[in-house]
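Appendix B.2, paired examples.
Example (i):
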Amino acid sequence: MARVERYAKFEGTARRALPIAVVGGAGYVGSITAVGLAHLGHRVVGVDINRERLAQLREGVAPFHEPGLAALLQVNLAAGRIRFTDDLPEALGEVQVVFVAVNTPRRDNGEADLSHIIDVARGLGEHLQHYSVVAVKSTVPVGAHLTMRRVLERYGRKEGMDYDLVANPEFLREGFAVHDFFYPDRVIIGGSSADAREVVRELFEPLGAPIIETTIENAQMTKYAANAFLAMRISFINEIANICERVGADVKDVAHGLGYDRRIGHEYLRPGVGFSGPCLPKDLEGLVRLAEDAGYEPFFLKAILEKNEHQRRQILGKVYGLLGTSLYGRRIGVLGLTFKPGTDDVRNSTAPEIVDYLSRRGAEVLTYDPMASPDAVLAGRRVSSAYEAAAGADLLLILTSWEEFRGLDFERIRREMRLPNLVDGVNALEPSAMRRLGFTYVGVGRP
C-alpha cells in the first residue's frame, strides 16, 4: 500500500464533491483521470464501451500496467467514490462535469482521427440532461472543438446554455501516470467561458500546481507543441550520438555535460532507437498535417520525423555490420518490446517493427520483455527469459532499457550465445564491461 500512502495527503481535499463523468473511463488517460478525481473526493463515474475492461475496473483490477493505479482504484471503490458503466445516459444523469478521454488515433495520411470524439459529441447531444462543463482531455488538433460544437448544435444544444467546452490536455507519462496526475508540472485550461474554466480550475487546485488559463486553441496547440519538442530533443541527441561514433566522442558524457546547462536540462537526452509509442509519433505527424492544412510547410517538424526513421535504419545497420549482408537463418535474440521501460504498452513501439523486419529477412527472432502485454500479436517467438532469448543466438539486440537487463548475468549470456555479438540499442550497458566479458559490443554513440 506504499503507493497509496504517497497520495494520501490528496484524499478528500476537493473544495466540494462534484458529480463527474469520464467518457473513455476504462482507457489509459480516462482511468487515471477518473481514479485521480475520485481520490480528491469527487463522485466519479467512468463510462466506456469496453465491457471487459469495465469488469476488471469494477473488481479493482487495473486493465494495464501502471504503478499505483490498482491500489488507488481499490481505495476509491471501497470509499464509494467511483463506479464504472457502459450506460452513457445513466452516467450523465447528475453530472456537472464531463471529461472526454477517448483515443484519437492517427489516420494513414497523418491527421488525427476524430471519429471517437464525434461519437462522444453525438452521445452528449442525445443524452445531456442539464448544463455541464465538457472538458476534453484527448489530444486533438487545433479547432477540434468546432467539430464537437457543430455536432452538438445538430441536437439543438447551445454552447453557454446547455454546455461549455474546455480543453484540458493531459501530460501523463506511461509508467508515471498516477504520479503525474497528482504532481503535474502545470494544468492547462482553455475555454471561452470564464465560469467553465473556473469549474475545472477548482477540480485541480488541491494539487498545488501552476494553473494556466487560456483559449481552447492555445491549450490544444500547447499539447501538440510539447510533444513535438520532446520528439525534437530525442532526434537531436540521436544525431549527436551518430556524430560521436564517427569522431571518437562518447555521447553519454556529452549528454551529461549538456544537461547541466540550465537552459537545456537532462530530460530526453538519452540516445537510442528513436521515439515511438502511442503519443509522440502520432502527435508530431498530426501537427505536421495541421500545419500543411493551414498552408504552411513545416520543414523542421518533418526533419524530426525523417531523423527518427533514419535512427531505426542506423540500428539495423549495426546488426548488418556484425552479421553481414544476409540475415537468413541467423538467430537473433531481442530484449525489450515495449516503447519504453515501466509500461506494458507495445503500441507503435519501434522494437516490434524491428523484430518484424528481421523476421521478414529470414532471421529466427526470439524476443523477451518482462512486461509487454501477453495479448499483443507480435512477430518473432516470445520466450520467458533473457537467457532463453540468448540461447544459440548469433546476436543479442537490446531495444528497451529495462533495469532487469542491467542486472543480467552476462557471463551466462555469453555462454548461451553462439556468437558474442551484442547491439545495445538503448545504451543500457557499459561498453568496457561487456568487452571484458568477450562481447563484440556496439552501442549508440559510444566508443
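Example (ii):
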Amino acid sequence: MFHALRLLRAIFTVVYLVASLALFGQLIVSHESGFYKNPITVSIKSTLDGTIYYTLDGSVPQPGASQTLEYYKPLVIDRQESSTLMFIPTSPIWQAPSQNFPKAWTLRIIEVKDGKIVDSTFRTYFIGIEHTLPVISIITDERNLFDEERGIYVPGKLFDPSNPYWTGNYHQRGSDWEREAVMEYFEGGVLKYRTNVGIRVHGEFTRSLPIKSLRLYARNEAKEFTYPFFGRTGYKKLLLRNAGNDWEYAYMRDMVASEIFKGLGFDTQDGYPVVHYINGEYWGIVYLMEYYDARYLQVKHSVNEKNVVIVNYDLTLQDGKEGEERLYSDLIEYVKNADFSNLVELERLKSMIDLDNFVNFHIAEIIAGNLDWPGNNERMWRTLKTEKTPLGDSRWRWMMYDMDLAFWEPSHDTLNVAIFGDPHVPWTTNEYATIILRKLLENDGVRNLFFKRMVEIFEETFGNGRAIAVVEKYEKLLVSEILLHSLRWGAPTYERWREEVSWLKEFFSLRRSYINEIISRYGLQR
C-alpha cells in the first residue's frame, strides 16, 4: 500500500510538472532547472526560427534594454558568489550579511519573431549548492522589490524615520503594490513546479522586519496553484511566512502551534519550512503555508467560495462582499443582550455558531498562552446560504493563525484575558473580543463543559508528549539550515536558536501547573 501511494504521488508530480511546463512553448533549453554538482553548458534552441533574448538579473527580456542579451552561443553556468541585492537595507533593524553566499543563476528567456514575443520561459540553476529543505526560487525585476519608488521590500520613499516600524513601501497594500514574478519549486533538488505569480508583502508589524513574509498570487492561465503543496490543489494564494515575532528566537512557534492543534475542529494552516532565493540570491528560511481566503474554504471544506464570508478579528471583511461582515456584528449585538442561562437562548446561539469549534479554539489559544490574542489574530467564517456539505450550515466557525507569540510565558493568565481583556494590551479590551466567551461562561453547563474540555485538550496536546514531538520534528528540519539563515540575517544566532528550542520544550511541562491553577480558580478540581 505504501509503495502504491508513493507511485501514485510520483505520477501526480509528473502530470503537474508537465502541465506547468506546457504553459510555455517551443523554446528548447538543454538543461532543466535544478541542482548540479558541477558547471554546465546551457544551450537554447527554438522550432520557430526567431531571435532568442535572455536576462540574468530577473528582469523580463526586452530587445534593446541594457540588461537584455541576444543569445548566440551556449552559456557556461558555473559556481558564483557575487551577490548585490542582499546588501540592500530592508528594515530599520536590518543587518548586513556576515559573508557572501553561493548564488544561483536565473535565466529569463524570450523568443521574438516578426517583432512579437512568441515564446518565453525561465530557469534557475544551482551549481554546487545543497539544501535539505525544499527550495523556492523567485525571479523578478529587482526594481519590483528594491527600487526607492516602487520597491515593495524596502523602506523606500514612504519611510518616515519618526514612525519607523509602521511606515515604508513594505507597509503598502492592494493590487497597486503587487509585483510580477515567476517562481519555481524544488524538492530533493528536483524541479516540481513552475508558474507565474504576483507577490505582495504580507503581515502587520512584521512587514518592518528585515526578512519579509510574502503572499503569492497565482497569475497563470489556470488562476490557481496546480501543484499539491499540501496534498491538495486549487489554492489561489499561498504564503511564504517569516516566523513573525519569533524570527529572532525559535523560528517555529507559529507552525508548531498549527500542527499541535490540528484536528481539534477549527482551522489551522498547513505548512512547512522551505529555503527561498530571490533572483538567485540566498534569502533564508520561510514557511510555505496556506492562506485563509474563500478559495481556501472551498479547497479545504468543499464549500462554494462564492457562498462564504470571512471576518477579521476587528470586524472588518477578510473575504466576501462588502457589507457581509455585518453578519458577524449582528451576532455580537445578539450576544450582548442574550441571557444564556435561558436554554432557549443558548440553543439559538448554537444555531448561529459551532459551539464545539468555538470552545476548542478558545481553549487552544488559552493553553498556548498566546500573548497576541484575543482581539487579534483570529478569523471567523460561515456560509451565507446553507449547503449540503459538512460545514455548510451557515454557522460561524473560528480560524487560528499567527501563533508566533504563543508558548512564551508559562504563567500567563490567558483565560482571564480571554474573558475580561488586559488593559495593558488595548486590542484585548474591545468588547467584541471577549463578549461571547464571557457570556457563555455564565451558563453552568457550558462552564463545566469548557473546563472539562480544557483538561482533555491539554492532555491531548501537551500532556502526552505530542507537543514536544512536534517541536523536535521542526528542530530536525531546521537544524541543518538555521546556521546559514543566521549568517544571512543576523538572527537568530545558532546559540540563541538552540536555547529557544529548549525553552519551548520546557514551556509545555511548566504550563501544566498554571493551567491547573486556572482551572481550580474557576471552581473545577482536576
